[in-house]
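Input record (one chain):
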Amino acid sequence: MDTIRIIRPVTLAALALVAAAGIATTAQAQSTFYAEPVHLHVKYSDLDTASVSGATTLYRRIQGAAHFVCGEEGRTLAAQAQYKSCVRSAVADAVSSVQNPLVTALYEGRTPQAQTAALAK
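The corresponding structure, as predicted from the sequence alone:
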């Protein structure tokens, strides 16, 4: 079964590092103040990730999971920067761990159609 598991310790200076092994994602914090981790499993076995539609849906699920585990953005500039860094790291590491060219193309801002054409050559 294809799933993404995201864990984030709740801290004051959380920076998510998402590492997926069989798509298990773990966000780690830089601070020494740890609380109970937040767990989130995102399934994608229902998707055809070889299609543009499936890859797009998976990428959106990854983004949603990252936003969820990174918590709220906060009101201060520091809290907003921390949140954005957490989301960026979580998405980047999850996309890398999926090892899907179409999802990677979406992440890099390329069109999946261009990636599909390149793979066909």
